[in-house]
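LOG
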Amino acid sequence: MTDSLLAARDLGHAFGTVVALHSVNFDVPPGRIGLVGANGAGKTTLIQILLGILTPTTGTATVFENDATTEFLSVRGRVGYMPENDCLPLDMTAADFLIHAAGLAGLPGNAARQRASDVLTLAGLHEERFRRIGGFSTGMKQRTKLAQAIVGHPDLVFLDEPTAGLDPEGREDMLDLISRLGGFGINALVSSHVLGDIERTCDWVLMLDGGRVIRSGPLDQLVEDDVASVEIIGDRTAVAAALTDAGATVEHDGRHLLVRAPDSDPFLLIRDALAATGAGMLSLGPRSTSLEDVFLSQEGSE
């Protein structure tokens, strides 16, 4: 793949005897990328390598085709970072903190103040911008971290567990903000173990498990919406064989058959298979796969 936003070749990293990443390879295009996996899967380690904070034990990683280890200054000049951990200066106001962050990104005084005001308004903190961060709720602190990540006009932001600790309303607000980043020309890598958040906000998924890449691809190719689920009365094997002969792919899921037919209507194929075999059915309906289904199926294949 050319013009990759992010790429890795045989990338590995170990903390002493603990291996966090095992020979990782991927190419990721521009857009909103979901970096998913359980806690301890290697997500934060990968982000820190891409930022040039950690030096990989083996292999290489690139951001905008710049080597993340040897050209990290070029990388950092184009990215923003929202870390997972608490890192905010609690005795500063949100406005002063954002003005300082904008200045570090190279904006002169008046431009930094205007940019800070605009970004805090975008993050829903306009009314609170002159309050000290130490008095903020968890949701307000998370929005402040996101605001500092984008205040420097980055081409790409790394968001590490951006919804951590948020209540349902705060989570919705954060996901809406992330979804809007593309409209401002900002690519995003969203790291999360909450797969539903990734489905809401991203168009590409990079899936890690135990420090290894187990899937990487467009979200719409990983998550299927055209699967029919039917519970059979009678000979399920005969129905499955008739469906297979008709060109469908059939998977047994307990008492149900999951039927995929990319070039046909799976419901019509099920109708014909039932008529041909004389079997009946207890239930029939669509079944959408989720990222959780994909992740669990990949775990089971390891």
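LOG (cont.) second protein
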Amino acid sequence: MTITSAVKQKNNPDMIQIYIDNVYAFSIPEEEYLRLNLYEKQEITDEEVKRIREEVNVNLAKQRALRILAARDRTEYEVKTRLIQSGFDEAAAEGAVMQLKAIGYINDMLFARKYISDRLKLKPKSKRALAYELEKKGIGKDIIAEVLDDFELDETVIAYRLARRKYGKYDVTDPKIQRRIASFLAHKGFSYDIIKGTLEQMIEDKSR
């Protein structure tokens, strides 16, 4: 087996793509490529390739992931995506994520709990909207359902508080204001029944 070419990645010139016998084999940071004294036309064994793929690259990806997590907590999907965007192979990114999950540095369940808790304090939304946001971050549906059930969200109360906070000073008997409130709550993922009940409650409050 021969390293037939070593090419810098177009999107990340700090990463080198290694081709063995004219077939792509793996990517590796340039500094590690130099440290391992790899070069074109060099003979390389299966064992060396396996070690680079399964040990060297995974460890390097894990170090990068720890720097990513130092900035803020991220989901398994987010960390893996960032590693791949940094130029690591999917296998190296997956290996790094699995190791970090095993020692507790990545925990989608804890992430989801903290995310919902923070959201409810700062920018409350419906269960549907919160679930959608977590799904976009790669959280599994089973975890989302469990966490949302644990919080026992009362969407009626949340919708009412949001509407009162934004439109409490307006004349809620005005159909134009009612449409604005309905649009506002719909955008936050509340159902027709919740929106209808909120409007009725606000109108009732106004008449008192």
